Amino acid sequence: MLSYLKLSKFFLYLTVFSLLVITSSTLFPFITGKYIFFRLAVELSLIFFLLAWGFQPGLNLKPRLVKAFNQPLVIIISLFVLAFVLSAVLAVDAKAAFWSNYERGDGGFQMIHYFIFFLLLVLLFEKEEDWRRLFIVSLIVAGLSILYGLAAALHWQGFLGTGICDRFQATLGNPSYVAIYMIFSLFYLLWLWLSAKKNWLRNLMFGSFLLVLLFIFLLTQTRGAFLGLGVGLFLGLIYLLIILPAGLTRRLTAAALVFLIFLGGLAFFFNKSNKSLALVPFCPSSSRLLELTVSGGSLETRFWTWGSAIQGFKERPILGWGPENFSLIFDKYFNTGHFKVGQPSETWFDRAHSVFFDYLAETGIIGLLAYLGIFAVFYLQFFKKTLVNVDKKLIYAAKNKKSVQISLNPEGVALRRPYGAGPYQSAWQRALLFSLPIIYLVQALVLFDILPVYLNLFLFFAFAIFLFNTLEQVNVRPSSNLSYSKLK
Q1: Per residue in 336-362, pLDDT tens?
Q2: Domain boundary assignment for the chain
Q3: I need a labelling partner for 449 at 20 to 30 A (CA). Which of 107, 158, 198, 388 fits?
């Protein structure tokens, strides 16, 4: 019998392929086709979900919906989307705010599609195997995107893009988005690697692709994402030091943290000196990753633009000017520093080039607080669901012949993760989950979001909800059928 739910899930898998779509016949080949493909895939997934709800015998989806909307992350993301769409409806230019334009493809209409995509993932991807497949599909798409970029760099006919050292663009058309896309891809790959059974061939495959993703990340020469990765690694290692028990793994983590601090000091030295260091040896321009200047650079123009955003916020502080309305703010509160006589100048911006200032100016204080609330709720849930003792008591237990890891709180109530085969695996996965939003937020200080970022961000939060739901409370008592031993 035809399963409408399986078809709905199929189109959710298909959404990821939108990142490969390039329509050379359109004015914006790296943008237009992507959002059209994404919207169609999401709409078809929703249609088959509704058909399953209405016509598939014996299927009651109401409990799933009730459970979903009881999740704190679903609630706060729903409030954010509501604020975003309401801001679009009440915008200075409501038409642009809701429908956007060919160049961006965002706005209220697109945000509704992101929300449907997110909600369907929460409702339909209830098994670890679903997420494993989605991560694999995402990595396949990332690999194909990289191959396209390499073909373009080699100037193959019909492929659009830049040279290998001219900031790698892949299928996204903008190296800054390729950088954060590689970060999400690294998360998917590392999660799969940590979850997989280990053998030399699998380790070789994962390790090789890891190096490819890191190499492409460096080729994008994106300083914001590079800084974000450094901050995320630093805080992630500190988190690991807190949760790991005393032993060799903890000592190695401490050594890695010291080495990272040394590398950070080295980067600071090269930034302050007149010396340059190309992180990709055959690409001299990759030295820009260690070059950060305020005056005369892109950061200076961002400061001017952020000043315009603040002035726009002061005029419309509650729900802002509306999505896709930043160009009106920029024109009204234009900083003349943008115009330099006799020099190439950027005198028109339709984004504040910072997610935070974009939401502040376009969706007002309500939209910005709702956006920040997503991350606040995420971390509240994260620390609540991955409770670890201050004295780092960890128990590795066996229940029903399945390996599980248990963290005891002072009251003897434990939290169980049903995945993971080793005593440290869950700790590394928690560190990944902890670090990714930090990396995203740091790079978001100097960049705005578009489809490749929104898609992966909503996917990540849906996955986080799945993980939080798999944590079960179990009581460890003498009468329990758990056999356990303390980890030294």
Answers
A1: 777 777 666 677 788 988 999 999 999
A2: 65-387+424-452
A3: 158
